[in-house]
Each structure stands twice: as structure tokens, then as C-alpha cells.
Write a structure and sequence with these properties.
The structure is a homodimer of 232-residue chains.
Chain A: H1 2-10, E1 19-24, E2 29-30, E3 35-39, H2 44-55, E4 59-64, E5 76-79, H3 83-93, E6 99-102, E7 109-111, E8 125-132, H4 136-140, E9 148-155, H5 159-169, E10 174-179, E11 191-197, E12 202-209, H6 210-229
Parallel strand pairs in A: 1-4, 1-6, 4-5, 6-9, 9-10
Antiparallel strand pairs in A: 2-3, 7-8, 10-11, 11-12
Chain lengths: 232, 232
């Protein structure tokens, strides 16, 4: 703990004038009072980014879905459950930030009609009707007073293709893509490997502990942020 | 810790010739490589029963879905994810037990066709086709060499009606029913309140910590088990 304290203490506070708004973790979409749809996101990557941004001196607002890890000390933690709740909080806080990091694995679909009582298993088959949720990062990118925006793409195939498509279509500044089909990285793992895409470049961050990845990523995001801010 | 140790040490080992097979926690039914359907079960009740049975001297096999709590020391832990895996393990271990406790919140339905790649959100609407899973506790009750069987019913309405129906239809010895719609008990709570139904009686176990509930429940289950064993 002394080592952490010292390295925190001496870390360069290069983000001290910035406010990072970070979403993290999964969302849960209710089916009925006991069942839900979710995903394997542990929140570790988003929390590691929050920690690294705090260390670099940023003010951090962390909007988090249900996870089993503790928020880093010093951040403003906003807890949500559903994609709709995350949307509301993200659209509230993002305009206050200099940087918005959409690291949460937000459910793309919610259940069309949430049952008020537990659904009985009377039938051999059941159809669950889902409707698309609002796209948080795309709507943040439509704001007049939008911050610098970093999206995430967790893919299982054609990673570069989907990531570049998402970057352009949603009008993001950066997108961090990872292959969640690979064992030992991504969802629920302590390690990750990312490729960071901008309209101008592509940077590999090789497999490492999520804290190490986060430290590199925060620095790279800041470099792109500064490059954009100083452009004519 | 000394208090726990002492009370464990002096507890009456009234289950020392019994082997309890207990299922606990939720299951997760995959939708695609990143998404799944689950429920709010924390595993706390099943783990508390395992702990109480171990204290009373039983051999305990704990078949558990994904939870964030530690298994009690001394139990045989079998970890599973899906309802199908839990079914396989339960049908393997239950015949070896004197008592089978179906405390897990097993998914009633699984996704008909699990997507091999992450489903893209191309459409505004999506239909998820589900098919019914095999009924673990009902199939254990059909075994020739079946143990004494205790089911659970987590309901949000008409609790006594559903519990008594399940007891009879599935041919169980006992059923422990709780109202998961009530705040502060049941799913994900540290407290619970149960009603235990047999074909002959109905016993209320009022709201208390799950460890307290589990201690009472284990003793009541044993009383019913002994009554059944000594019947002509």
C-alpha cells in the first residue's frame, strides 16, 4: 500500500484541469421481478480507467452498472441498473465533462413489456420481445456542448471493421476495440488488450493487466484530446 | 471468529450420518458470447443452508451457479454456469445423498439458438426464442433411489397456492416458499422469511438473517426426514 501511495503521490498530475465522465460495468434489463438480461462485463476496465484518470489529477464522475468491485477513492460514483438509467445519467453528466469515456457494456436491447409478476413456465416455448435502447455514446456525440468522446467496441469478429465503422457513424473522437472472444482478456478478466482507433491513427496496446492498460490509455486519450484542442 | 469456532465446535452433530446435496445461486443462459439471461439470486440462502448442515455434521455437496460469495469450508463445491450443467451435476450427485435441497434459482428457459458471434443491433426490434429447461427437482423426485427432497418456491404472488401445487405436482417431501416481491428479504438480501410446506403441515419461519433461517430450516428438514424414515 505504501508503494501505491508513493507512486500516486509522485504521479504527474497532467489531467488536473480535466473532468472525465466514465461509464462502466454492465446494465441489467428486467424481464420480470426476478429475471434479467445482462452481459459478462465486470466493470474492471472502466474502474481502472477511473483510477488512472484520478491519479493523473482529473476530476472523475463514474457512472456504473451493477458490479462487485469498489469504486476508486475520490471519484463521484453514480450507480445505475438499466440502460435507460445509464442513458439519463450519461446525458446529464457528459456535457459537464472535458472527456467522456463510454466503457460500460450497455444492453443494446431491453424487454418490450416487463412482466409485473414472475412469469410462470406454463409453455414449452417462450418469445421474448426486445426493443432497441437509445445509443448513449452516439447521443452524447450529438450534444452541442459535447466533450471529447471515447467509445469502446467489444467484438468477437471483424474487430477493426466494426470499430472503424462505429467511430465514423457515431462521430466519436476515439474508439478502443477489444476481442472479447479471446480467452484471458476482456470481459471478467484481469487482463486486456486494446487497439485504439482515431480518424488519423491506430495504436496497439498489447496484452497486460487492466491497470497497466488503463494508465497507457489515459495518456493516449489525453494526447489526442490535446491535439484536437490545439487544432485550428 | 472465536465465537463462531466455539459454537461450531459444540454444535450437536445431529446430521453426522447424512449427506446433503444442495443447489444454490442463479444460472446463466447464454444469448451470444457476451450476453446472458440470469436472475437476482445471490446464492446466500443456499450457502447458509450448506453452512448450517456442515455445522450439524452432514457431508455436503454444494452445486453452485455463478455467485460472489465463498463456499463454506468443508463442503464439496461443484461450480456450474447454465441450467443444463446444473441439471447434469444434480442428477449425478442427488442419488448419492440422503437429502437433496433445490435452493438454486435455475433458469426455467434457455435461449433456443445461442449465437456464436455477438449479435449486432441492426434492428429496432428483436425476438428471442426460448425453450423450457429440464426440471431438476422434479426429475430428481423421479429417481428410483431418490433422496429426501426439499424444493424452493420464490414467488411474487399467490405464494401458498403455487407452493402447494409445486409440492404435489413434483412429488417433493417439503417446499420452502418465500415472497421475493417483499423488500428486504429473499433475492440478494441478507434476510429472508420462509414458509415450509409438507403434505401434512405448514411452518412459518419469520424474517431473520439467512444464517438464522438456515439453522432453523436444517433442523426442521431433519425432523421431517426422520419422521418419513421411521414411517412404516
Amino acid at each position: 500500500e505504501l508503494v501505491t501511495l508513493s507512486s500516486d503521490f509522485f504521479a504527474d498530475k497532467y489531467l488536473q484541469d480535466q473532468h472525465w465522465v466514465i461509464t462502466a460495468g454492465p446494465t441489467r434489463e428486467a424481464i420480470d421481478p426476478v429475471r434479467y438480461i445482462s452481459n459478462y462485463s465486470s466493470g474492471k476496465m472502466g474502474y481502472a480507467i477511473a483510477h488512472a484518470a484520478l491519479r493523473a489529477g482529473a476530476k472523475v464522475t463514474l457512472i456504473s452498472g451493477p458490479v462487485n468491485i469498489s469504486a476508486p477513492r475520490g471519484c463521484e460514483l453514480i450507480e445505475v441498473t438499466s440502460a435507460e438509467q445509464m442513458y439519463q445519467q450519461a446525458l446529464t453528466y457528459a456535457p459537464q465533462g472535458t472527456t467522456f469515456i463510454a466503457c460500460a457494456a450497455v444492453a443494446d436491447y431491453r424487454v418490450a413489456d416487463i412482466a409485473k409478476e414472475k412469469i410462470k413456465k406454463d409453455n414449452e416455448h417462450m418469445q421474448l420481445s426486445l426493443v432497441k435502447n437509445q445509443d448513449i455514446v452516439a447521443d452524447v456525440a450529438k450534444l452541442a456542448n459535447k466533450p471529447f468522446i471515447v467509445g469502446f467496441a467489444a467484438e468477437t469478429q471483424n474487430i477493426a471493421h466494426y470499430a472503424r465503422g462505429k467511430l465514423k457513424r457515431k462521430n466519436l473522437d476515439l474508439i478502443a476495440a477489444n476481442d472479447v472472444a479471446k480467452a484471458g482478456q476482456g470481459f471478467n478478466s484481469d487482463d486486456n488488450a486494446l487497439t485504439l482507433y482515431s480518424a488519423f491513427d491506430e495504436i496497439e496496446i498489447p496484452l497486460a493487466n487492466k491497470q497497466v492498460i488503463a494508465t497507457k490509455l489515459v495518456s493516449l486519450i489525453n494526447q489526442h484530446y490535446l491535439a484536437k484542442s490545439t487544432k485550428p
